[in-house]
């Protein structure tokens, strides 16, 4: 436990955590030369001991570590080494060891040590903790709501969801490397990607949808993103998904679609950095297919190939994978939960896979201009009767997204009519709360409102009832941002949610332990502000309680923010 805690502290230091970068006070460099140095550690034993386990954490990579006083050194990573020896001593007795390191680049100072579970670094390093993180997104003074700031925050949320090894420019400094063994059970590197929601499973269908819609927003509203200074951050959010999906596409005709067990994961409330439960990986193949999952992943990678057209190598890799996955989806048809039963009950594909077949084909047409994909998309439209109507645009049902892309890329009257019909039916025929929120589903009502608002913006941009559609979409956005007297975006506006259903942000500052009973039940705000997260939202009567354990109304999720980002970018662009 303490080793994990301290490892987290050391790793996050490289990611901007405001803590000392000095050598531990209990460590001294005796002699140094290019590529190496000799040092000594010396400290008072916190308690009596009959054997030694000493964890040493360096601030930069070490090629080799030798401790010259006997015992055994094992390497956990290039910055973390464990020294074991059969020494014994009393509490308060001096413990002293000589060591020597070799390195290639920057001199690796010894930043922290744990002796038999106790921090022995001294004030010069060790288990220091960060103060509450200030909002990294600056206010701009825009009224009636600060759209550029909340756009920044809506993208920032995805940094809190990152799994795997975090980059040096990570802004959410209370998160650090986690789940570095993902895929080890199958011999494939499946690190990276986003944790789904307030939990830590990586579910492929909503994750790929998130990538598609985030990319769509950045492509369609690049000017708005750039105006707010968020285009690069939006691309980074998409790339984090796309790089993971490329790993998950581990071979032709093969795609890993889930990492983690829903039951085991949901039984754990704590930091993702400290997970110890098995995280099995499950895949689809030509022999065990999943057309909805393969199709959505193809769409995400096709969209990424467009967004990263300035990076030829990455764009080509995304497009090649998208082509293969579309073939997997179309030629080997089946609902994905047959092959990945662990996703059933969490993300069942109620709409079937016809929408994803058309969706992936039309995205590939947009990415390539290849008429064969256009013809395939039209074939799927006809085969599955996609023009017959839809109620929602979501991780499950991409049909309204197909309407918008077909209307944009083909322009045929049937497609334009379907798009207008969907938006009109939602605006004029759906249920609304007394406060004016379109209420399409009990679970995550705000997510569904933002999804349709995004489609309304796309229709408006095509010249369909432009003024009225934009006004309606802005009204839905304003509800989320605070029109009823409180915001539904964590960290933004008046009286925002403070207790989102989110494990990592509910844990206290290090070095305090995160017990599930405390983190779930303590009445105060989550110790870490989950900036930019859109919570599920109110019931049909506008009732909402900021309850950490209300996962229907107060959980957050990757798919909740995806279209929300696009709506904000569209609003910034159209307000300029």
From TrEMBL:
Cross-referenced Pfam families: Glyco_hydro_9
Domain Glycoside hydrolase family, first and last residues per copy: 147-568
Molecular functions per Gene Ontology: cellulase activity
The keyword Acyltransferase belongs to this UniProt entry's keyword annotation: no
Keywords: Carbohydrate metabolism, Cellulose degradation, Glycosidase, Hydrolase, Polysaccharide degradation, Signal
BP GO terms, sorted: cellulose catabolic process
InterPro entries for the chain: 6-hairpin_glycosidase_sf, 6hp_glycosidase-like_sf, Glyco_hydro_9, Glyco_hydro_9_Asp/Glu_AS, Glyco_hydro_9_His_AS
Reaction(s) this enzyme catalyzes, per UniProt: Endohydrolysis of (1->4)-beta-D-glucosidic linkages in cellulose, lichenin and cereal beta-D-glucans
The organism's place on the tree of life at top rank: Eukaryota
Signal peptide: 1-16
Catalytic residues (positions): 501, 546, 555
Enzyme Commission number(s) from the entry: 3.2.1.4
Family: Belongs to the glycosyl hydrolase 9 (cellulase E) family.
Name of the protein: Endoglucanase
Species for this entry: Hyalella azteca (Amphipod)
Taxonomic path: Eukaryota, Metazoa, Ecdysozoa, Arthropoda, Crustacea
Gene expressing this chain: LOC108681925
């Amino acid at each position: 436990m303490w080793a994990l805690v301290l490892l987290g502290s050391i790793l996050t230091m490289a990611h901007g955590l405001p803590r000392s970068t000095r050598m531990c006070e209990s460590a001294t460099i005796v002699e140094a030369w290019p590529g190496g140095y000799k040092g000594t550690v010396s400290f008072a034993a916190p308690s009596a001991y009959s054997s030694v386990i000493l964890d040493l954490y360096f601030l930069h990579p070490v090629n080799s570590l030798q401790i010259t006083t006997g015992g055994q050194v094992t390497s956990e990573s290039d910055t973390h080494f464990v020294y074991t020896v059969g020494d014994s001593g009393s509490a308060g007795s001096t413990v002293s060891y000589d060591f020597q390191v070799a390195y290639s680049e920057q001199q690796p100072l010894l930043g922290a040590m744990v002796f038999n579970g106790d921090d022995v670094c001294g004030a010069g390093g060790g288990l220091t903790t960060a103060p509450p993180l200030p909002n990294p997104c600056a206010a701009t003074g825009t009224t009636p709501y600060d759209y550029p700031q909340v756009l920044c925050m809506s993208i920032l949320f995805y940094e809190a969801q990152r799994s795997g090894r975090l980059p040096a420019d990570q802004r959410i400094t209370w998160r650090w490397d986690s789940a570095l063994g993902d895929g080890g059970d199958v011999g494939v590197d499946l690190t990276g990607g986003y944790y789904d929601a307030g939990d830590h499973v990586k579910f492929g269908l909503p994750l790929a949808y998130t990538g598609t819609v985030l990319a769509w927003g950045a492509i369609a509203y690049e000017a708005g993103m750039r105006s707010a200074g968020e285009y690069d951050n939006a691309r980074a959010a998409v790339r984090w998904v796309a790089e993971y999906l490329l790993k998950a596409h581990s071979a032709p005709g093969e795609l890993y679609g889930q990492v983690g067990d829903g039951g085991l994961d949901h039984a754990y409330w704590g930091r993702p950095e400290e997970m110890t439960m098995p995280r099995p990986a499950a895949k689809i193949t030509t022999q065990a297919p999943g057309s909805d999952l393969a199709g959505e992943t193809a769409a995400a990678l096709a969209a990424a190939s467009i967004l990263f057209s300035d990076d030829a190598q990455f764009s080509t890799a995304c497009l090649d994978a998208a082509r293969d996955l579309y073939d997997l989806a179309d030629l080997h048809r089946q609902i994905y939960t047959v092959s990945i039963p662990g996703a059933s009950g969490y993300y069942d594909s109620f709409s079937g896979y016809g929408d994803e077949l058309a969706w992936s084909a039309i995205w590939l047409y947009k990415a390539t201009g290849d008429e064969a994909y256009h013809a395939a998309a039209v074939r799927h439209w006809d085969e599955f009767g996609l023009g017959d109507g839809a109620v929602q645009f979501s991780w499950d049902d991409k049909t309204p997204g197909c309407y918008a892309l077909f209307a944009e890329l083909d322009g045929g009257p049937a497609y334009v009519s379907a798009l207008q019909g969907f938006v009109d039916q939602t605006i004029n025929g759906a249920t609304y709360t007394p406060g004016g929120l379109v209420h399409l589903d009990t679970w995550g009502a705000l997510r569904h409102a933002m999804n349709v608002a995004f489609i309304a913006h796309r229709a408006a941009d095509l010249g369909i009832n432009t003024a009225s559609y934009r006004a309606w979409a802005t009204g839905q956005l304003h509800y989320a941002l605070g029109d009823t007297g409180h915001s539904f975006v964590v960290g933004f506006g008046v009286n925002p949610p403070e207790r989102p259903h989110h494990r990592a942000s509910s844990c206290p500052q290090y070095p305090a332990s995160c017990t599930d009973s405390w983190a779930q039940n303590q009445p105060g705000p989550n110790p870490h502000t989950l900036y930019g997260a859109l919570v599920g939202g109110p019931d049909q009567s506008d009732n909402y309680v900021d309850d950490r354990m209300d996962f229907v109304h107060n959980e957050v999720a990757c798919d909740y923010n995806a279209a929300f980002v696009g709506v904000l970018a569209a609003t910034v662009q159209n307000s300029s």
